[in-house]
Design goal:
This protein is an alpha/beta fold. The chain is about 40% helix and about 15% strand. The structure holds nicotinamide-adenine-dinucleotide and 2'deoxy-thymidine-5'-diphospho-alpha-D-glucose.
Amino acid sequence: MTVLVAGGAGFIGSNYVRRRVGGGDAVRVLDKLTYAGRRENLEGLGDAVELIEGDIAERDLARGAVEGCDAVVNFAAESHVDRSIESPGEFIQTDVYGTYVLLEAARDAGIRYLQISTDEVYGDVEQGSATEASPLDPSSPYSASKAGGDLIVGAFARTYGAEALIIRASNNYGPAQHPEKLIPLCILNALAGDPLPVYGDGMQVRNWLFVEDFCAAIDVALERGQPGLVYNAGGPDELPNMEVIRGILELCGRDESLIERVEDRPGHDRRYSLASERLIELGWSAEVGFADGLERTVSWYRDNESWWGPIRSGEYREYYERHYGRSLGAPGEAPG
Ligand code: NAD
Ligand code: DAU
């Protein structure tokens, strides 16, 4: 089987490519290699992976990439909420328009299309958990763009009979996540002795899912899911950010004096929670608990400075200064 993995050079996409190659499949990756996409993420996978560098929103490129594939899994997106507040246009372009272009290419080729989406489309979940029937109520330009992409996928399934479906995950964490996201940001700052920026009161709750568990869920949806349906994939643990940060400090041998409260994110959702019964009925369940997954993640960052060193000294450094109004410790000043 040949799978087209759009956005396969990013965090979750590259973990998924590794899983498919490990299972004996050939993978074609279509990736624009934005600041978040890296060739290094596909290193060591040999001839089983073909990388096409380009934009999912370019019609001819998308159609060419789909040709000869048996299925499309679309991870390609602008993915960081804070950056969407700074510049929403790129999110609408890729997450809405790009999704449409790639989806249309898959429909015309008559192959299955799985859209990777997010629990953020349901917005704040004050009580209980969001099911696939919960209304869409996105809060940020990122989540609104993802909701737009999802609506187009649903419309293509219903109107054209496209073999298209959606999987919505809660917060992923694990190896090779860009350090703009909370967990790797805090791990690298803790190792370097930099302050850990906590938005607002730090009591926002996220539903953490280890990336390998999510990759397993994707295969269940791709192989056994029904076109036109949505499948939620939620993590086993719901934790306030402050508890996550305390866990990281402990694993990195640092104390709480590194915690720094900073201005809250505008429109910040207080809580996400997903009910995943549909996927559980198909045989999926998350296996990695948060304590175990966090330990594995911290070890990975400790062991892979060659991966994150260049990121912490490049575009991310400028972004960090712009966003947090302070600079990071000098590159290479880690790990303690
Ligand atoms: P990421 O930012 O690490 O990776 C995104 C990848 O998409 C990068 O390789 C980037 O180069 C590529 N890309 C961006 N724009 C593109 C374009 N126009 N054409 C082709 N490639 C493009 O993101 P991630 O955290 O791995 O998330 C992957 C997907 O999963 C996204 O769709 C995101 O919305 C969704 N998701 C992420 C999480 C999470 O916790 N990280 C949770 C739920 C859903
Ligand atoms: O819920 C799924 C979503 O999870 C995905 O769709 C997104 O692509 C992914 O980026 C992630 O979004 P979040 O906004 O939840 O992740 P982030 O790591 O940016 O933030 C997690 C929580 O930590 C959130 O409540 C904001 C807070 N935070 C984040 C950063 C970067 C801080 O307190 N300080 C920070 O510096």
